[in-house]
Amino acid sequence: MTLNETIARLRAGHLMVREAHEWDELSGDLAQAYASNDDDLIEQLRPPFLQSWRTVTRYVLRDTFDAAGISVTEPGHPWGIATLTANGASCEPLLCGADTLSPLAPEPGGLQLLTFAEAMTHYADCLGQLLDEGK
């Protein structure tokens, strides 16, 4: 399976679960909860937000990743979607910007959660590290 096919299936799998604007709303609501230091709302929103991304990757896209020769394991980063491994290399697509101050307890306004489009771009970049364009 080519990189472009894998990316297209990745995007379609996530859009089967939620439309892009719904993913963005979840991300925005959670970022706002962090910005306002609303620990109760963070506790309410964060687990289902992360679990949604992780479940799609691990279960909905299982056949896609198997066909591409990519193994999927638990993420190591608190905002990671999964650890992806292929051809002796690993990467971990994240749901936050790389410059986030602290992945567990960011300062107000310090957490930069990605939009759906940004998350897909980051995911595609990770897949590009694992797969050859010409496959």
Report on this structure:
With 135 residues, the protein is mainly α. Helix content is 56%, strand content 7%. The protein has 5 helices and 3 strands, in the order ααααβββα. The protein has helices at 3-17, 20-35, 39-60, 62-68, 116-130, and strands spanning 71-73, 83-86, 89-91. It has a 3-stranded antiparallel beta sheet, with helices on one face. Helix 1 runs antiparallel to helix 5 and helix 2 runs antiparallel to helix 3 (39-60). The termini are close together. The relative contact order is 0.19. The model is unreliable at 101-109 (pLDDT under 50).
Question: How would you describe this structure in keywords?
Answer:
3-stranded antiparallel sheet, 5 helices, 135 residues, elongated, mainly alpha
What class, by secondary structure content?
Answer: mainly alpha
Q: Name the helicity range.
A: 55-70%
> Topology as H/E string?
HHHHEEEH
Mean pLDDT: 87
**Biggest sheet record:** 3 strands, antiparallel
Q: What general form does the structure show?
A: elongated
First-residue to last-residue Cα separation: 6 Å
* Arrangement of strands in the largest sheet: 1-2-3
Our estimate of the beta-strand percent is 5-15%
Number of strands: 3
Q: Pick out the low-confidence regions.
A: 101-109
Number of helices: 5
Radius of gyration: 15 Å
